[in-house]
Every structure is written in C-alpha cells, then in structure tokens.
C-alpha cells in the first residue's frame, strides 16, 4: 500500500469576515454535540479520566463546560471548514 500523505487545501490566506468568525463558535459547539452524540450511541459515558476500556471520557459535557483546550480543537475544525468553503468559491450569507 502506498504511504498516505495528507494534502489539505491551503486556506492560510483566507480571511473570514467578522460575521463568519462569530459563526465559528456556533459550528464548534455543534461539532462537539455531534461527536458527543456519537460517543453516547457507542456506549460511552462521562468519566473523570479518559478510559477507553470502560468507554469513559471527561469530554461528555456541554460545550460550554469543556476546557479551552478541547474547545480549541472544535473551533479549529469549524474555522478550517469555513475557510475551505470560501476557498472553494462558495459564499455564506445569513438570511
């Protein structure tokens, strides 16, 4: 098998307007909720420490209760997704 080399589109030059930067936080919260819903469906529960064998994680809490380090992961996903949409030539408009 050929070695996989990730090649994401370069979005470093994409500047998002303020309204899309605000949207980033809403998307990040939804990303967390989708992740959490999937974990719960797989039988995961809240635990003080991550334990894969017991299927426990401290991240099964509402987004606002997450530590900033965990929120940052979701924000980065949201931000990069918005930048990719713009880089691909799409517009995002609020009704």
3D architecture notes:
With 95 residues, the protein is mostly helical. The protein has helices spanning 18-41, 68-87, and strands at residues 45-46, 56-57. It has a two-stranded parallel ribbon with strand order 1-2. Helix 1 crosses helix 2. The chain is globular and about 45 Å long. The model has no long low-confidence stretch (mean pLDDT 95).
Features:
2 helices, 95 residues, 46% helix, mainly alpha, globular, 4% strand, two-stranded parallel ribbon
What's the topology here?
Blueprint: H1 18-41, E1 45-46, E2 56-57, H2 68-87
Parallel strand pairs: 1-2
Stretches where pLDDT falls below 50 for ≥5 residues? Answer: none
Shape: globular
Report, as a whole number of angstroms, the end-to-end distance. Answer: 47 Å
Instruction: Using the CA coordinates, give the radius of gyration.
Output: 16 Å
Strands, count: 2
- Helix amount, in percent? 40-55%
Question: Nutshell version of this structure?
Answer:
It is built from two helices and two strands, in the order αββα.
């Amino acid at each position: 098998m050929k070695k996989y080399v990730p090649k994401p589109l370069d979005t470093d030059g994409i500047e998002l307007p303020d309204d899309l930067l605000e949207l980033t936080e809403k998307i990040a919260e939804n990303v967390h909720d989708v992740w959490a819903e999937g974990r719960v469906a797989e039988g995961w529960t809240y635990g003080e420490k991550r334990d894969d064998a017991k299927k426990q994680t401290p991240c099964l809490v509402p987004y606002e209760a997450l530590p900033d380090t965990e929120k940052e992961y979701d924000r980065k996903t949201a931000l990069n997704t918005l930048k990719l949409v713009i880089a691909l030539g799409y517009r995002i408009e609020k009704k």
